[in-house]
Amino acid sequence: MAFLVLLLLLNFVFNATNVQSTSSIIKPGSSLSPINNSYLLSPSGQFAFGFYRYKNGYSVGIWFENVQQKTIVWTANRDASPFPSDVTLVLTTEGTLIVRPKQGQDVLIANTSSHNVSRLATSASMLDSGNFVLLNSSGGILWKSFDFPTDTILPGQRVAVDGKLVSSVAESDHGSGKFLIVMQGDGNLVQYPVGAVELGAAYWASNTINAGYGVSLNLDGNGHLYLLNDTGFNIKSINTNYVNASGKSMYRATIDTDGIFRLYSHSSNRSDDWYTEWSSSNYRCDPIGLCGENSYCVMMDGEPICRCPPHFDFINETQKELGCRKNYSLVACDTRNDQTFDFLEVNDVSWKDDAYLSLSSKTKNICRAECYRDCSCEAAVFENESCKMMKLPLRFGRRVLSGQITAFLKIGGELAGVGTRKRKRKLRMDMLIISIAMACLTLGFLVVATIGVRKYRAHARKYKRVLRLVNNRVAEDVALKSFSFEELKDATNNFVDVIGKGAYGTVFKGVLFDGERTVAIKRLEKVVAEGERDFLNEMKAIGKTHHKNLVRLLGYCYDGTNRLLVYEYMKNGSLADFLFKSRLKVNWEGRVEIVLSIARGICYLHEECETQIIHCDIKPENILMDDKGYAKIADFGLAKLLMPNQSRTYTEIRGTRGYVAPEWHRNLPITVKADVYSFGIMLFEIICCRRSVKADVPENEQVLAYWVHDCFKANEVEKLVQNELVEKSKLEKMVKVGLWCTQEEASSRPSMKRVILMLEGTVNIPDPPLLTSFVSSSLSPINNSYLLSPSGQFAFGFYRYKNGYSVGIWFENVQQKTIVWTANRDASSFPSDVTLVLTTEGTLIVRPKQGQDVLIANTSSHNVSRLATSASMLDSGNFVLLNSSGGIVWKSFDFPTDTILPGQRLAVDGKLVSSVAESDHGSGKFLIVMQGDGNLVQYPVGAVELGAAYWASNTINAGYGVSLNLDGNGHLYLLNDIGFNIKSINMNYVNASGKSMYHATIDTDVLTDLMIGTLNGHPLIIDAILSACAVRIVIVL
């Protein structure tokens, strides 16, 4: 009997342990631990969440449990150190999921702590989708791992705008690796090396730029990888030949450690391996950045390996991917010595185009000679009759078997001597012959020696002057010269010859080096204390700049309180003189060349300097013309320098009114995109040969940027050049570049490198977004101002309501104005003298002439990335507030009234409330609710708690996170949180020809309408449920 009891007890203990190990829910007070190997299993046993072995300890993650080789699909805190075995994973009563060590600080995994009890996690669950979630007491999802992917997405998961996947370091190291794939705000899915996004160094892209707003990457349960826009349309299938093969039940898409994005499938057979269904590249050297600086990738036995060019050594022989360094040193650049340099030739290796200068070159030898003559050139790449001059290090090298790329690496010192041994032998023979000849002539020279001595004394002073001039000019090639104030005072004859004056100083003409060189000397005024502290560092950095489109800074003066800059003298004046004062207008071809020259100079400052420089005052007065008519950028006195680890800076407003970017006035971070904006304004001036603001023209032409926009929108760009004969396509190209450069949001502006590519015609220029946003401006009922979406389909602003006005969104291009959203719907209507304003604090308000402001939307925050700086009406019908990076921080789609539109969803606990009447948009008697149990239900207002429903979708417990969705084809359906359609509401929907607009509305008479309209649509009602006393779904055609 005792033995039987013992067996029962052991069986109980075994079962209890097993339950603990395979539970699917964590409650407060329970825990998981590496010691007892406890974890959460999803209901089907397909996925597990918990601790897994990692390096010399454990990490917290999610993996496929029912495959032979454990496959990690998500890791918490992936870049943190592994945990020891004595930790526990706990869901606290405060709603936080933590790893608790025996000693030391807790480590946060997920946090839902909140004063709102409905936002507090009370349990955690591992779902069959592979999504680990924290739930509130009603079963609603508060946090999910799907929102924080690492290197993998699963079916039902999506990567939204600005979302990314980052590769792991190695198969055994799940920390953040070298490569990422980003869902960009422009609709393009792009792969980059980590840290190279700003450089535009992509190696794969979906090529879906401007394909729609809110584009996301999606993977469905059939292994289909595709892009959806915010209206639910599939804009591109990534794996176009996907097939849901029989027996294959599991999929994942992963950016692997080698930088290639792959879609994998696994059959239901546990012993099978993962099969690659699709990959972003079949050539494993395609991902740039596999090999470090000065090294290149080649394929060897099917595997990518890194190699060094000749006379370069690996930085670390055991980690060859770290790159190479040269094993020689270049001697000082002296073009008078033919034996100073030699070249190593490397064929069929492609490098990133980091050229500071690109030249047309017919042959390899010409390209090599050009690099030889240029002291700044350390390498040259010849391809397709183009010679690209570069500095070391070279980046992103990879073998390409085209036979058309040759790189020349300049070497010097002893190595150059090895390369020129034959020349040296020939030189020794020549010297022997010369020596014999010299011996014969020695006697003759003795005869004239006396005469030479006399002449020497006469010319000694002249030789000293020449020597001083040469020394000074050699010094110019090495560093800036420091002048005393007295020297520059003498050079300018006591500062009498003024040749220019600006906000920060006066420019004088001067002469240096005993009258041998004319210079321009700028005397800085009102130098602030901070500027004085940084002055020498700025001079040191500026002195290293060297580009044919920059005015050369020769020296400076830092003497007491005096600060002066010495520039090369440009006798032809400024671009402003050419554009606005000259009687002879520069022809179109000349103006295009000027634009390109300026763009190349700014690009050098932004991307090619050792220290990045933001000019901060790009304008025609700061573009000088040399004696050959080339444009050069001048005046670095206003430039704010960035250290290498910075990409943006906060600083006081610098620059000239009319050219400064909007972010200056919003106290936002200033990046190189501020210069891009100024360049765009100046580009308009160069196109039109007029100032950006001009009073003596018609009102619609006074602000040049607005006039250019209007002309482009009306397809009348030829008005901008008056009677000048310019090919329209070329003119439009310049205008489009300018419109892109002057976008309100800095993140929407192109880099200067891309601007150059646009101007040269290397890349296509998409149509820029037209003015659909406002900032630091207002809308008013008096002047009937409102925002239109780009296509003109939707409008946002004031509309007539009762005896006044309300703020809302409506269909603009239908005969009968149809309101789809109202702000503050239960508030009183506004009088006509109010204005709608987006404040600098990030709030959207209605401001009356007297009384309190009325809040419409609020994004004010101590976090600048959450602060709205502009607002826009999208073509989806979504009115949004955007931050300085163009990210959406508030949207009307999150606050529906009685209507949803295609691409909008009604999430858990979301509801639509009917209006009081057709003419009264206040909250009415009926509502439809997306319940946490998965059921979509209609109630009278106030009767939810009573359970007095009059219609339901009958989908209780059909899944977690169920939402109501309407797509662009008029399909109204319910999705669960893994993206599966659990029920079609309108089962017999048809996307009729020519029908392009839909909205679903709970009407004032308890009816839920699905409305479809053409551009001129008149409604036709079709009953889906015939009993008007219950509910009907109405289709309006």
From TrEMBL:
Domain Protein kinase, residue spans: 493-771
EC number: 2.7.11.1
Membrane topology, as annotated: Single-pass type I membrane protein
TM regions (residue ranges): 431-453
GO cellular component annotations of the record: membrane
Catalytic activity entry: L-seryl-[protein] + ATP = O-phospho-L-seryl-[protein] + ADP + H(+); L-threonyl-[protein] + ATP = O-phospho-L-threonyl-[protein] + ADP + H(+)
Residue stretches making up the Apple domain: 333-400
Domain Bulb-type lectin: 17-147, 150-276, 772-894
Top class in the EC scheme: transferase
Entry's localization field: Membrane
Signal sequence extent: 1-21
Binding-site positions, ATP: K522
InterPro entries in UniProt: Bulb-type_lectin_dom (IPR001480), Bulb-type_lectin_dom_sf (IPR036426), G-type_lectin_kinases/EP1-like (IPR051343), Kinase-like_dom_sf (IPR011009), Pan_app (IPR003609), Prot_kinase_dom (IPR000719), Protein_kinase_ATP_BS (IPR017441), S_locus_glycoprot_dom (IPR000858)
Keywords linked to the UniProt accession: ATP-binding, Disulfide bond, EGF-like domain, Glycoprotein, Kinase, Lectin, Membrane, Nucleotide-binding, Receptor, Serine/threonine-protein kinase, Signal, Transferase, Transmembrane, Transmembrane helix
Gene Ontology biological process terms from the UniProt entry: recognition of pollen
Pfam families in alphabetical order: B_lectin, Pkinase, S_locus_glycop
SUPFAM superfamilies: alpha-D-mannose-specific plant lectins, Protein kinase-like (PK-like)
Protein name (Swiss-Prot/TrEMBL): non-specific serine/threonine protein kinase
Species: Gossypium australe
Lineage summary: Eukaryota, Viridiplantae, Streptophyta, Embryophyta, Tracheophyta
